[in-house]
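Aim 2, interim progress: modelling of the flavin mononucleotide-bound target.
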Amino acid sequence: MASAKILAFAASLRGDSYNKKLVQIAAAKAQQAGAQVDLIDLRDLPMPIYDGDLEREQGLPPNAKKFKQLLMAADGFLIATPEYNKMMPALLKNCIDWASRPEPNEPGLVAFTGKVAAVMGASPGALAAIRGAMQARLQLSLIGTLVLPDELGIARAHEAFNEDGSLKDAKQEQTVATLAAKLVATISKLKSGGA
Ligand SMILES: Cc1cc2nc3c(=O)[nH]c(=O)nc-3n(C[C@H](O)[C@H](O)[C@H](O)COP(=O)(O)O)c2cc1C
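Predicted structure of the complex, ligand included:
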């Protein structure tokens, strides 16, 4: 059976993003668990804010189309998100909104339906972006993605990572590995008809 294909990304554009570091670790763990992982940086796919007039006149912007195709090609998603003002970042909502738009002869929500996702968060604060991640989980589940219920947050993220991007706390690193492996196992079971 083909291995699980996972698209991994952080919902942050910042070069030194804690969420980029976190998703990079999770992507490596998913790979170790046997998945094929495509780790992308949303900085490479800048998109305008969703605009119905733009869509009507020009269709999906090229990067929105690319992002949607990456989602469509994947069996599941690994996402690390910050929270802004206790909510999911506009960046993530906007990417999801564009990718949710059907193109001619396409069923609705084709990029999200039947996919599996694991959502994590990192923040310098004490609450580890849990509210932003919770919203992202709700958003994805409302549009047809099976979201793992696991909560994984890295609090005090400014102190949590080593220079090389690894986590200082081996237990936290293991928690990330466990969630990544669970995502891979869930996708594999679904692909083999075993779940
Ligand atoms: C507009 C704004 C709002 C923020 N609100 C929150 C918040 O509600 N909770 C929180 O933990 N951190 C908040 N932060 C701090 C972010 O967690 C911090 O900037 C973090 O580094 C962003 O994630 P990144 O490192 O992946 O870019 C906020 C930051 C900004 C710019």
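The chain has a mean pLDDT of 97. Strands lie at 5-10, 36-39, 76-81, 116-122, 146-147, 152-154.
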